[in-house]
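2024-03-11 09:14:02 DEBUG pipeline.ingest accepted 1 chain
2024-03-11 09:14:02 DEBUG pipeline.ingest length=335
2024-03-11 09:14:03 DEBUG pipeline.predict start
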Amino acid sequence: MKLNRILGALILGTAFCANAENAPNPLSTWQDTAPKQAIEAWVKGATQAGASTFIPVNKRYVVFDNDGTLWPEAPLTFQLQFAIDEIKRLAPDHPEWQQDATVKAVLANDMKTLVKAGKPGLMQLLTLTHSGMTTEEYAKRVRSWLDSSQHPRFGCHYDQLAYLPMKQLLGYLRDNGFKTWIVSGGGIDFMRVFAEQMYGIPPEQVVGSFALGEFAVTRDGSTIEKTMKGAYYDDEAAKPAAIHLFMGQRPVGAFGNSDGDVPMLQYTSTNPDFKPFGLIVRHTDETREYAYDSHPPSSGTLVEGLKLAPKYGWTVVDMKRDWKTVFDPAQCAHP
């Protein structure tokens, strides 16, 4: 009888080890390098009841930048490309636009002039393409653009270009009780069109740049019309302020890729109550994506973030070294 118990224990132990070896790896597209190990160690500590590093489930809020962190932002941010494409689509019906210097630059594909126009030029494009319509109409326009437009380099629809390692990370965190948020300079209404489908992040957990809408009762019900009133650009120091406004508590984890994300990372990394985690995605892979730090194609400069990473203990992901793949081959068959 004793021998039977011993044999049974050995069989069960062997089966357990076999199952553990065959268990799916939630971060299978991450190389087994320092960033993956740091992520797993932090999550283990945060979820281990009784440990000094334990974080209660209702405090496990983590924030992710979008452009350059969850999908590319080159050669232009995707929302800017949407605005440019919308100008070209709508211009024939708006002859009054022809006198606008920014519109002229767009129609002439004069990107140098458009870049020189800076923030005023960008605001003009957004005014023409992101206001004066209902939120429902705007969402339809974004959805139509996503369904019909392709990235100029990768040849895939823009919403097929999520970074697969980051999608796995989002799922891994949620499986361990974390609540995942997007906090990005991208437009809140723009991102809410695709965030749930692409990343599993519902609209109410998307924070971005916004302007005040105008409510109206209509014959068929009610609407909110998009305007540019009270425009709030959710970048740099505005990110922590927006986190406080929309979330109401300090995150325990922050994930970004540029100097515009530094204040959000600092705000998270100085959480006085829990052991926080910060991560920076560094674009180093010109073959599979892009390689840049101080000289990005349009946005995403990373200089200060790298300097501050050792001070705050931020994990820096080298895209070329630390990711087995960049995009999901089932979505976009790019090397």
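2024-03-11 09:14:41 DEBUG pipeline.report DSSP finds 14 helices and seven strands in the chain.
2024-03-11 09:14:41 DEBUG pipeline.predict end
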